[in-house]
Design brief:
Elements lengths: L2 H13 L3 H8 L3 H9 L6 H11 L3 H10 L14 H13 L8 E4 L5 E4 L1 H6 L14 H6 L1 H4 L5 H16 L3 H12 L20 E4 L5 E9 L7 H4 L2 E7 L2 H6 L4
Helix pairs in contact: 1-5, 2-3, 4-5, 10-11
């Protein structure tokens, strides 16, 4: 079996598809798919492109498929410190984070904080690394007991983090590692054993800061559209959203 055949078989297994089901989904025959899997037929650029498109795989997965097929790389792996990646992050910071009056960050799939605005740095200063050379990581912050003690309804919120990371882990290896690490550390041991009969529209995060002030909030998560880079595809912009006037005041540092 070739490297591409193994990648294809692993992907099919992860999706829970038989050869016949995958062949139908991507518009080919089971015989052709079997030949590609076993290495009897070489994947063409058209086959790989159709596979990526019809299975809605991530850009990182597309990059892996093109590499395994030995085809010219359509989605090159760029260095995180490259000018192109830096420019994308600068755009998110300049056009979004600086204009948001409440805490806002940009994270990668490993939940490393790549950019943040002043309200975030001010309010979360006690949980950020003292040295400026090492970026903060939201997963590491969540591991701290002093941070979790600020979240009055942590068991409810932990469940949302669980589902969010679980979804990200299906698309990004970095998120998979973070998710596994948090589970192994027991961070999600507090999850309820049953789902409530009638869940609210959303669950507010109930924060109590060390100075005694509090805030009820949720967040909005967004990404740049038309992205064609595997790294930038995984970047998320998270905007903290206060749910009442007192919370807005608490989340707006003077």
């Amino acid at each position: 079996m070739t490297a591409f055949g193994q990648v294809l078989r692993d992907m099919r297994g992860a999706l829970g598809l038989s050869q016949a089901e995958m062949a139908l989904q991507i518009g080919t025959t089971q015989r052709h798919l079997s030949f590609v899997e076993t290495g009897r037929s070489a994947p063409t650029a058209y086959f790989v492109t159709r596979l990526c498109r019809e299975l809605n795989v991530s850009l990182a997965q597309r990059s892996n498929l093109f590499a395994a097929a030995g085809l010219p790389q359509a989605y090159p792996a760029r260095d995180p410190a490259s000018p192109e990646i830096t420019a994308a992050l600068d755009t998110m910071e300049r056009c979004v984070l600086r204009h948001w009056p409440f805490p806002a960050i940009v994270m990668n799939p490993a939940w490393t904080i790549l950019r943040s605005n002043r309200p975030f740095r001010t309010l979360f200063a006690p949980f950020l690394p003292e040295t400026g050379n090492r970026p903060a990581n939201l997963a590491e912050i969540m591991m701290r007991p002093d941070y979790r003690s600020m979240v009055v309804n942590w068991p409810d919120i932990a469940e949302h983090f669980y589902y969010r990371l679980q979804w990200a882990a299906t698309r990004h290896d970095e998120a998979k590692e973070v998710f596994a690490g948090l589970k192994a550390a027991g961070l999600f041991d507090v999850l309820p054993r049953s789902i409530p009969g009638a869940a609210p529209i959303f669950t507010p995060v109930d924060l109590r800061f060390p100075d005694g002030t509090g805030a009820r909030l949720t967040s909005m998560v967004g990404q740049l559209m038309t992205v064609q880079d595997p790294l930038v595809e995984g970047y998320e912009i998270e905007l903290f959203v206060p749910l009442d006037d007192d919370s807005a005041t608490a989340l707006t540092p003077s």
